[in-house]
């Protein structure tokens, strides 16, 4: 199959699951699968970065494994942990067996040698509690691994990820190197609260998702909020697009447009008017400053939106 | 990896996109995967592999469009009735852009104008190659390196039996484009560095393409001495001139592609070292961008809040919490650590004539760093001192600076008065987290400098840094009273160029506590 057909197939597959995307996004999924490289997704909040990973998992019919990053996330939370309680319990239960084991052993050295034969039992995979990264590596049918908000984690953690991202393997001191059973598709998302290191960027495909244009946003709303009528949909999309051209603290994102569309459906609105917009603006804008600033523009924007849909 | 790609990556690097070796290897694999058939897919794919920030994406798009341009040799309008192939060639470029199936186009086209070089063996190599050499990368030196061998002979006497004259007469855009690209490759046009080399390259390329045969044809035609012969000669002459103009366009495009940024870079380099007071007005914009660039670098380096472990001080609470899983046995010990705070900065700036320019750039710098320096207070004075923090927070930097100059600028400098005003206004807010930056030449017009106030500030503040635009040799000459100020500063240094400024600010951020 030709690349462009495969890309089109990805788009259609996503659309079935209700995720509408442009060619750029579909291309990156295609590339990531073919080249076996992770995707670093950047873009303003609420454009569907996390949603993309979910949609991919659904499209490929694979499990989505999610690791939410935060300041202080470390190996124990991301990779694995020893089940200490279980180890303790087992040693208690097996204490009596120890006598049998040592039977016939003469001297300290011999007993020690006997023990050495068993020492690894307590540090075997049975006692390993897999965390998201390890789960993704162990997954038999392949998985979609989402490392969310990587910019919130510490530098050390970012460095720790490098081995995983380039070779799909990870080193556990007690067990050695664990290789992925099947290469997972890895998404990293970032809100750009800090610059991601070059080493990490180099290992990833870089996908930037901007705010969608009005046509794409229209399609998204159509897929996500099918109840909203076409006329109103065009109006509200035009209005949101107009809002994004203004100087605001935070521009309304796609998810907020979807919320707004749902709100308008709930209110049985048929067309957009200034009054209605004023009442529901807090769904779109999350800063009081922004709401106040926009107030003067509402009439103009609404008329513009009505015209655009006509 | 193909030659086109190498050249493209070189052009990207010129356009300030950082491409590492491993990324270019990835790009090679990507091209193998998607091929050159579909322009849009290629652009999207390479964009994700090579450009890793928003700005880089912009540069990438621009370079891609320029590099893979295919707009040379628009068929001359008068020939519209004649050959359909020329239009075909055009159409193909457009079609592949619209995302359609390019390879089959290539084949179709190949059928239409048989002598297209590359088609000769393109058949066995697969249709995509044929399309590729005629298609987008045809605009490049070494159009289709994959079938380099075939194209190689596409010079003066094309293997398909088509001479330059025939190509011109047929208005065969695709073939001409290829011949041009091939000639450019052989003359190593990609090494062009200076605009003065244009003429030379145009001539060499024309020669490679077979200018001589054209001249001969003109000569033969004109020697006939008949009217028809003269007309014929004139016709060829026109075609030759047209060709020359097109080749010149092409050479200029390539020059732009490979050297566009070199000049800019040189200028930036020079500007960052020149004394700020000597900066020309017309360079102000470049400097502004430069400040932004430097600020961005500093932000990237310092965006993370650093922690410092105090070794030897046990953090009891954290240790207990951490060791719960070991049944409360304390064997994994946590030391106390403290977060390294961002410094509070107070900048006291002289805005009188001689120093105003420096103040402008210092403030520009400090306010471009608001991400890592959230608490900057700015004071401006020449005679009396006033706080301008609000101005900078509300207005854009440019406007705020202009306003500051207007309100506080002009007037004789009086350090004594300014320091008194500062003491009244903000001395109480100076604490051990505060870094005070004084920017001024220390020329107090023979008024009392009131160094005692600076001493008080020094006692309270974490650091006092004095930045003086004058070179050290001029300190303490004339009415300069640096000698009475320097004892009360942690550092006093010359700060004349952007580089100096960057160093100061970077120091400020690094050693911040």
- Poorly predicted regions of chain B are 75-160
Shape type of chain B: elongated
**Mean pLDDT across every amino acid position of chain B:** 74
Low-confidence stretches of chain A: none
Percentage of residues assigned to helices of chain A: 40-55%
Q: Describe the biggest sheet of chain B?
A: 6 strands, mixed
- Quaternary status of these chains? heterodimer
Q: Termini distance of chain B?
A: 50 Å
| Count, helices of chain A | 16
Could you walk me through the main structural features you see in this protein, from its secondary elements to its overall organization?
The complex is a heterodimer of chains A (310) and B (513). In chain A, 54% of the residues lie in helices and 13% in strands. With 310 residues, chain A is α/β, with parallel strands linked by helices. In chain A, helix 1 (3-16) packs across helix 2, helix 11 packs across helix 12 (230-244) and helix 13 crosses helix 14 (274-284). Chain A starts with a helix and ends with a helix. The mean pLDDT of chain A is 87. By secondary structure, chain B is α/β, with parallel strands linked by helices. Chain B has 23 helices and eight strands. In chain B, the strands form two sheets. A six-stranded mixed beta sheet of chain B has the order 5-4-3-6-7-8, with helices on both faces. A two-stranded antiparallel ribbon of chain B has the order 1-2. In chain B, strand 7 (463-468), helix 22 and strand 8 form a beta-alpha-beta unit. In chain B, helix 7 runs antiparallel to helix 8 (127-134) and helix 12 packs antiparallel against helix 14 (227-273). The two termini of chain B are 50 Å apart. The relative contact order of chain B is 0.06.
């Amino acid at each position: 199959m030709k690349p462009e057909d495969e890309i089109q197939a990805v788009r259609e597959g996503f659309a079935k699951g209700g995720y509408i995307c442009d060619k750029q996004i579909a291309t990156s999924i295609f590339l990531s699968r073919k080249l076996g490289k992770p995707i670093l997704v950047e873009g303003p909040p609420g454009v569907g970065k996390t949603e993309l990973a979910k949609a991919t998992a659904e499209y490929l019919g694979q499990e989505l494994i999610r690791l939410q990053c935060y300041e202080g996330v470390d190996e124990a939370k991301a990779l694995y942990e020893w089940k200490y309680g279980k180890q303790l319990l087992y040693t208690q239960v097996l204490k009596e067996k120890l006598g049998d084991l040592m039977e016939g052993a003469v001297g300290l050295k011999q007993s020690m040698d006997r023990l050495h034969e068993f020492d690894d039992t307590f540090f075997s995979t049975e006692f390993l509690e897999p965390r998201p990264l390890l789960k993704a590596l162990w997954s038999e049918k392949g998985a979609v691994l989402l490392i969310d908000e990587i910019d919130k984690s510490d530098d050390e953690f970012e460095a720790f990820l490098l081995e995983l991202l380039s070779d799909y393997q990870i080193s556990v001191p007690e067990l050695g190197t664990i290789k992925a059973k099947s290469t997972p598709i890895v998404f990293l998302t970032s809100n750009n609260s800090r610059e991601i290191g070059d080493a990490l960027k180099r290992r990833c495909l870089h996908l930037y998702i901007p705010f969608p244009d009005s046509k794409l946003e229209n399609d998204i709303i159509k897929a996500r909020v099918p109840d909203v009528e076409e006329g109103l949909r065009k109006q509200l999309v035009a209005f949101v697009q107009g809002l994004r051209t203004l100087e605001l603290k935070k521009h309304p994102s796609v998810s907020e447009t979807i919320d707004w569309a749902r709100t308008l459906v709930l209110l049985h609105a048929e067309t957009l008017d200034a009054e209605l917009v004023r009442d529901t603006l807090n769904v779109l804008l999350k800063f009081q400053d922004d709401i106040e600033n926009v107030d003067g523009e509402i009439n103009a924007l609404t008329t513009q939106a009505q015209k655009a849909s006509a | 990896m193909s030659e086109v790609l190498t050249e493209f990556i070189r052009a990207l690097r010129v356009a300030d996109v950082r491409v590492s070796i491993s990324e270019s290897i990835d790009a090679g694999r990507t091209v193998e995967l998607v091929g050159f058939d579909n322009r849009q897919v290629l652009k999207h794919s390479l964009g994700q592999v090579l450009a890793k920030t928003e700005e880089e994406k912009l540069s990438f798009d621009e370079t891609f469009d320029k590099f893979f341009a295919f707009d040379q040799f628009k068929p001359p309008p008068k020939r519209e009735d004649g050959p359909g192939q020329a239009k075909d060639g055009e159409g193909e470029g457009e079609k592949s852009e619209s995302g359609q199936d390019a390879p089959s186009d290539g084949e179709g086209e190949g059928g239409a104008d048989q002598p297209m070089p590359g088609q000769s063996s393109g058949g066995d190599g697969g249709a995509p190659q044929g399309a590729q050499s005629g298609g987008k990368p045809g605009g490049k030196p070494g159009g289709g390196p994959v079938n380099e061998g075939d194209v190689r002979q596409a010079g003066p006497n094309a293997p398909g039996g088509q001479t330059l004259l025939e190509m011109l007469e047929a208005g065969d855009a695709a073939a001409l484009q290829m011949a041009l690209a091939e000639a450019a490759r052989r003359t190593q046009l990609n090494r062009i560095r200076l605009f003065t080399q244009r003429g030379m390259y145009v001539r060499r390329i024309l020669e490679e393409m077979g200018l001589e045969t054209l001249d001969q044809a003109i000569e033969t035609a004109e020697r006939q001495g008949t009217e028809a012969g003269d007309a014929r000669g004139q016709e060829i002459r026109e075609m030759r001139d047209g060709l020359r103009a097109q080749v010149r366009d092409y050479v200029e495009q390539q020059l732009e592609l490979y050297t566009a940024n070199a000049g800019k870079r040189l200028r930036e380099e020079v500007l960052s070292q020149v004394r700020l007071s000597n900066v020309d007005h017309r360079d102000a914009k470049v400097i502004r961008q430069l400040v932004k660039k430097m600020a961005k670098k500093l932000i990237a380096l310092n965006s993370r809040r650093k922690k410092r472990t105090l070794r030897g001080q046990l953090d009891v609470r954290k240790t207990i919490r951490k060791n719960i899983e070991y049944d409360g046995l304390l064997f994994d010990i946590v030391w106390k650590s403290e977060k390294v705070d961002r410094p509070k900065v107070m900048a006291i700036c002289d805005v009188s004539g001689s120093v105003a320019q420096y103040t402008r750039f210092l403030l520009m710098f400090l306010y471009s760093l608001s991400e890592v320096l959230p608490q900057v207070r700015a004071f401006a004075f020449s005679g009396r001192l006033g706080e301008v923090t609000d101005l900078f927070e509300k207005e854009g930097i440019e406007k705020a600076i202009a306003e500051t100059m207007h309100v506080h600028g002009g007037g004789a400098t009086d350090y004594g008065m300014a320091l008194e005003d500062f003491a009244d206004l903000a001395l109480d807010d100076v604490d051990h987290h505060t870094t005070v930056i004084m920017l001024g030449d220390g020329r107090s017009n023979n008024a009392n400098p009131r160094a005692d106030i600076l001493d008080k500030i020094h006692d309270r503040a974490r650091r006092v840094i004095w930045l003086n635009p004058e070179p050290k040799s001029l300190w303490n000459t004339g009415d300069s009273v640096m000698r009475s100020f320097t004892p009360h500063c942690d550092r006093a240094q010359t700060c004349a160029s952007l580089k100096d400024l960057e160093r100061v600010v970077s120091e400020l951020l690094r050693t911040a506590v």
